[in-house]
Design a protein that fits this description.
Structural class: alpha/beta
Low-confidence stretches: none
Number of strands: 16
Helix content: 25-40%
CATH superfamily of the largest domain: Aldolase class I
Shape: elongated
Number of domains: 3
Mean pLDDT: 89
CATH topology of the largest domain: TIM Barrel
C-alpha cells in the first residue's frame, strides 16, 4: 500500500525566534538552515524580509549555502490597503528576497478584519486576490497562511471559506489553515479541515499553536482529515506556548500513522538535530521531551528494567535508535537488582553471575540514596562504586586534610584560599591555591597538588555546579546535594556529594570527578 506523502514546513527561524529568551544572530539562522536541510525539511521559512535588516540579509546569504533538499520560504503579509503591489515596500521586499516560496499571511476571521484591520470584509478579499495574483504572475510559488482560520470558521464559516476561495481564484499553491490563538481542539480541527479539503482541490496545510497543549495532536488530526503539509518548529519553539513540535510530529506521522515525509528518510538524525538547535538557541534541552529528550527512553523502576532485559517492547514504544536516541537505565532508591546488573553491563562489567555482589552494590546505593545521594545525573560516582566493589578501582591518592580561608577586604573584594595535604605513593604533597569562591579554591588546590603525579588532570575543568537543599525545614543546618559536571574538553562526567556542610559535599563530588578521570585514563594501575 502506497503511503500518503506529506510535506514539512519549518518556521523555527521566524515563529520559533519569537520564543522568550531566543535571539538568533544571522549566523545562527544560517547554521540552523543547514541543519534543517540535513534533516530533509521540505520548506525552511527564513523570516520576514523588509521587517528587519537581519532577515533581509538572511535571504541574500542563504543563497550562498549548499542547500541540497529544502526550499527557502519568505513570509510576509498581503499588500496594504490603498497601495498597489508595486508601490507596497513590504511586497517588494518579498519579491527581492528571491525565495523559492512566498508565504502570505491574511486575515480569515471577520472579527479580525473589522477590529484589527479596520476595513470592510470585501476589501480584505481584494487584498488577498491582488497579492496572490501579483506574485503568481511573477512566477513565485505562493502559500496562503489563513490567519485565525479556525476561530473565523467557527464565527462565520462563509467568510473564512471565501478568503480561501479568493486565494484559489488568484492561483495560490497551498491553503494553510492557521490556529493562531491555539485554542482549537483536535475534534474541531478534524471536522473543519475535512470540510475544507472536500470543498477545495488546492493542497491544504496546517499551522497550529500550542496554547491548549494539543498542537501536535491537531497536526495529526489535520493530516488524517486530508491536509498534506504541516508547519511547525524544532523543539516546539514559538511565541507564548510555542508551535507544533516537529521533533514529535515527524516520528508520530512516519512511525505511528503510516505517512511519509522526506525527514522520515533520515529519522536517525532527529535527536541530534533537536539538541543542535537547542544549543544554538542557547536554551536547555528539555529532558522529558518525546523521542529526543535525554529521558525519553530512561528507566528507573526495577520491575521495568527486569522486563526490558527480556524484551524492550515491554516498556518502550519504539527502538530509540530509530530517532537517534539511546536507552538509559537509572540508578535510584527505586532500583532493583536488574538495574544494577544492567548498568554494570553498560560499563562492560558482567556481575549477573554474582548475586551477592549485586545485592551488596544495591544495598550501598539505597543507603546512599537514603542520605540524599542521587546517581541519575552522577553516573561517574556510580561507576566508581561498582569498580570499587569488583576490586578494579582503588583511590589514586590519600587525602590527609584541607583548610579553607575566605576573606573580604575593605573594598568588598572577596577571595578564598585552600590549603591541601595529600599523599601519593608515599610522597607527601602540601599545597595551596586561590579561587573566587571556596569550591574553586579547593578545585584549584587539589588539581595543583595532583598534576605533578598525574599530568592528565591539567586537561580537565569544572563545567557545571549545582546545589540542592534536601531538608529545608532545618534552615541553614539542612543537608545539601552537590552535583558537579566536569570535562576534559571531549567527554563530560557527573559526580555527586551529600553533607550538611556544603564544602564537604563539594569536596566529595570534586574528588570523585578526578578519580573517575584517572581511572578512565589509567585503569586499575595506581601509584599509591
Amino acid at each position: 500500500m502506497t503511503k500518503k506523502i506529506i510535506s514539512i514546513y519549518d518556521t523555527t527561524l521566524r515563529d520559533g525566534a519569537q520564543t522568550v529568551g531566543i535571539s538568533f544572530s544571522l549566523q545562527d539562522k544560517l547554521n540552523i538552515a543547514k541543519i534543517l536541510d540535513w534533516l530533509k525539511i521540505d520548506y525552511i521559512e527564513g523570516g520576514w524580509p523588509g521587517s528587519n535588516p537581519k532577515d533581509e540579509a538572511f535571504f541574500s546569504e542563504v543563497r550562498k549555502l549548499d542547500i541540497q533538499h529544502s526550499k527557502i520560504a519568505a513570509f510576509g503579509s498581503t499588500k496594504r490597503k490603498g497601495l498597489s503591489c508595486k508601490e507596497d515596500p513590504m511586497m517588494q521586499s518579498l519579491v527581492n528576497s528571491k525565495a523559492d516560496v512566498i508565504t502570505l499571511v491574511a486575515k480569515s476571521w471577520d472579527f479580525q478584519v473589522t477590529k484589527a484591520l479596520g476595513m470592510e470584509l470585501h476589501e480584505n478579499l481584494e487584498l488577498i486576490y491582488d497579492s496572490v495574483a501579483y506574485l503568481k504572475d511573477l512566477g513565485f510559488t505562493v502559500f496562503l497562511d489563513a490567519e485565525h482560520f479556525f476561530d473565523g470558521y467557527k464565527s462565520n464559516s462563509d467568510y473564512s471559506l471565501s478568503c480561501l476561495a479568493k486565494a484559489c481564484e488568484a492561483g495560490v499553491d497551498m491553503l494553510v489553515l492557521c490556529d493562531t490563538n491555539g485554542g482549537t481542539l483536535p475534534s474541531e480541527v478534524f471536522d473543519i479541515t475535512r470540510d475544507v479539503t472536500s470543498k477545495f482541490s488546492t493542497a491544504v496545510g496546517g499551522h497550529f499553536h500550542n496554547d491548549s497543549g494539543v498542537a501536535v495532536a491537531n497536526s495529526m488530526y489535520a493530516i488524517d482529515a486530508g491536509a498534506v503539509s504541516i508547519q511547525g518548529t524544532i523543539n516546539g519553539y514559538g511565541e507564548r506556548c510555542g508551535n507544533c513540535d516537529l521533533i514529535t510530529f515527524i516520528p508520530n506521522s512516519a512511525l505511528k500513522m503510516g505517512y511519509h515525509c522526506s525527514s522520515a528518510e533520515v529519522l536517525q538524525h532527529l535527536t541530534e538535530v533537536s539538541r543542535m538547535v537547542s544549543e544554538i538557541a542557547n536554551l536547555p534541552h528539555r529532558e522529558n521531551m518525546p523521542y529526543a529528550g535525554d529521558n525519553a527512553f530512561a528507566h528507573k523502576g526495577g520491575i521495568h528494567v527486569s522486563a526490558l532485559q527480556k524484551d524492550t517492547r515491554t516498556y518502550e514504544h519504539i527502538d530509540p535508535s530509530l530517532v537517534g536516541n539511546r536507552r538509559k537505565v537509572l540508578i535510584s532508591e527505586l532500583s532493583g537488582k536488574s538495574n544494577v546488573e544492567f548498568k554494570a553491563k553498560e560499563l562492560g562489567i558482567d556481575i549477573t553471575g554474582d548475586i551477592n555482589l549485586s545485592r551488596t552494590i544495591l544495598e550501598k546505593i539505597k543507603n546512599l540514596e537514603e542520605q540524599g545521594f542521587q546517581f541519575e545525573a552522577a553516573e561517574a560516582s556510580f561507576e566508581l562504586i561498582i569498580r570499587e566493589a569488583t576490586g578494579e578501582y582503588k583511590p589514586f591518592f590519600n587525602f590527609l586534610g584541607f583548610r579553607l580561608i575566605t576573606e573580604m577586604d575593605s573594598n568588598g573584594y572577596l577571595e578564598s584560599e585552600a590549603t591541601i595535604k595529600i599523599e601519593v605513593g608515599g610522597i607527601l604533597e602540601h599545597t595551596a591555591a586561590n579561587g573566587n569562591g571556596p569550591v574553586e579554591a579547593m578545585d584549584n588546590a587539589l588539581r595543583k597538588a595532583l598534576t605533578k603525579f598525574y599530568p592528565e588532570i591539567a586537561q580537565m575543568h569544572l563545567a557545571d555546579f549545582k546545589v540542592r537543599v534536601l531538608d529545608d525545614n532545618k534552615g541553614t543546618a539542612s543537608s545539601v546535594r552537590v552535583l558537579i559536571d566536569q570535562t576534559d574538553g571531549t567527554n563530560h562526567w557527573g559526580t555527586v556529594g551529600v553533607s550538611p556542610n556544603i564544602i564537604e559535599a563539594s569536596w566529595a563530588a570534586l574528588v570523585d570527578g578526578i578519580e573517575y578521570l584517572l581511572f578512565k585514563k589509567r585503569g586499575s594501575k595506581v601509584n599509591n
